[in-house]
User: Which sequence fits this backbone?
């Protein structure tokens, strides 16, 4: 019993199993990681453009964050395979070693360029697990501490101090981004508290977040820094919190239980590589949204099922069945939606050119397939607003406003109510939009114009001064024009701008 306990605490890496199933899983994942890392390097050096005009590197993803998290999750598996296949003279051992080292090299060249701190942390933790187990670091540390308690204590203080300094440096590297994440988590906990049993439902997080953040800022207890970093996110940037918000604490408990089961089985069967990669992906999930991205979701399912079932029990077949089942089950609906999306993209060119009336007619036909797309609902509502169909416009905008955290839905709704002469409802919409993201000038600008138009000059003057004196998060020609217009309004009323 004593030996079993010692083994459980200080396990050796299991000799690599070169079965067909294991080789398929490892070579497939390593090859996938190589392809993504190579693609990112081509984007970095200008051979290919990224999938997002705001970023230079995205791989096959739409944003560099999830892309970096994907690479970070495969890296521990590559390190494990490199260590295990080192010195092997078999063809399969050499092939696996080549794949592993190519993956390590390409990932090491591209991962720092993504500037994703969460991915760096995930890669460090996942790779650290591999190295700790392979070199029996825990056992060696235990022996050292027993023999050299005083020196070990000094080293522990030094290491902890270095970790604190590194953590502080990483935090200040992108401080506003970190503060923004903290605000997201804070608001998400309010959603969980408001829906403690069933959550807000799958896919309803963004809309619930917008409402919760508006209520938070409306209370007036937020700090200036929170107002400055506030945004309109689609995700919680923490998968555990988002699962709790959408499915309730019960859903989170089930998810965590499955993850613990996977880690337990992986530890017992000594699947160290899978353990390291799964740990890296879940560390990254604490700061991002990998389970909302197709590639990372598939990777998570492969790692999870392999950890639970084991690579020797035909896990590849089970994983394939799990991955293909949702696609086969919903194939027809997905095909119809894809056609609608393609038609939507074709119509967007006319929308961007300002051909609103015809575009609105064509958008209405696409509504049954795209009613769950907030951006589509916004464009449809905007087209109707531009053609004077204010009541119908607000119906679609309200639907989209409860599916998105973007305050622009409420700004356009307010303008529609203003055009209808329903000033109180317009004021409510503009105020709500301002509370969702209080660092934006546009809702305040709209409020000021509303007050002037509705003969509430005192409120208009006060709001105009607020627009002039407020420093927007993003300074642009539009914000400068708003401030200039408000100064002209105050001059008309013979009022000072300060």
Assistant:
């Amino acid at each position: 019993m004593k030996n079993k306990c010692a083994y459980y605490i200080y396990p050796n890496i299991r000799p690599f199993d070169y079965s067909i199933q294991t080789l398929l899983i490892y070579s497939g994942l390593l090859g996938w990681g190589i392809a993504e890392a190579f693609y990112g390097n081509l984007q970095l050096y200008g051979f290919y453009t990224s999938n997002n005009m705001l970023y230079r590197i995205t791989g096959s993803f739409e944003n560099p964050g999830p892309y970096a998290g994907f690479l970070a999750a495969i890296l521990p598996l590559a390190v494990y395979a490199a260590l295990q296949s080192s010195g092997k003279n078999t063809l399969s051992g050499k092939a696996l070693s080549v794949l592993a080292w190519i993956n390590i090299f390409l990932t090491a060249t591209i991962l720092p360029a993504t500037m994703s701190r969460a991915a760096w942390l995930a890669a460090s933790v996942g790779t650290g697990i591999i190295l700790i187990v392979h070199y029996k670091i825990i056992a060696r540390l235990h022996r050292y501490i027993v023999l050299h308690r005083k020196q070990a204590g000094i080293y522990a203080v030094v290491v902890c101090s270095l970790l604190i300094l590194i953590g502080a440096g990483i935090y200040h590297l992108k401080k506003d981004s970190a503060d923004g994440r903290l605000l997201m988590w804070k608001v998400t906990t309010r959603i969980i508290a408001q829906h403690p049993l069933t959550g807000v439902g799958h896919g309803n997080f963004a809309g619930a977040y917008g409402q919760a953040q508006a209520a938070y800022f409306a209370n007036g207890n937020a700090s200036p820094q929170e107002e400055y970093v506030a945004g309109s996110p689609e995700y919680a940037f923490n998968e555990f919190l988002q699962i709790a918000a959408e499915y309730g604490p019960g859903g989170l408990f089930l998810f965590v239980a499955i993850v613990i089961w996977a880690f337990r089985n992986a530890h017992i069967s000594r699947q160290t590589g899978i353990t390291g990669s799964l740990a890296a992906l879940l560390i990254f999930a604490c700061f991002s949204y990998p389970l909302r991205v197709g590639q990372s979701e598939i990777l998570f399912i492969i790692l999870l099922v392999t950890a639970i079932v084991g690579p020797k029990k035909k896990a590849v077949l089970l994983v394939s069945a799990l991955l293909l089942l949702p696609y086969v089950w919903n194939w027809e609906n997905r095909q119809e939606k894809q056609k609608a999306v393609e038609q939507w993209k074709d119509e967007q060119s006319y929308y961007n050119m300002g051909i609103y009336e015809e575009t609105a007619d064509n958008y209405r036909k696409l509504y049954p397939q795209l009613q769950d797309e907030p951006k589509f609902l916004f464009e449809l509502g905007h087209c109707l607003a531009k053609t004077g169909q204010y009541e119908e416009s607000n119906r679609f905008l309200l639907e989209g406003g409860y599916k998105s955290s973007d305050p622009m839905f409420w700004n356009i709704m307010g303008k529609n109510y203003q055009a209808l002469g329903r000033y109180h409802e317009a004021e409510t919409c503009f105020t709500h939009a301002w509370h969702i993201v209080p660092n934006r000038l546009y809702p305040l600008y709209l409020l000021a114009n509303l007050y002037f138009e509705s003969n509430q000059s005192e409120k208009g003057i006060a709001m105009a001064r607020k627009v002039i004196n407020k420093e927007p998060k993003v300074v642009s020609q539009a914000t400068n024009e708003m401030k200039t217009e408000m100064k002209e309004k105050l001059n008309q009323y013979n009022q000072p701008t300060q």
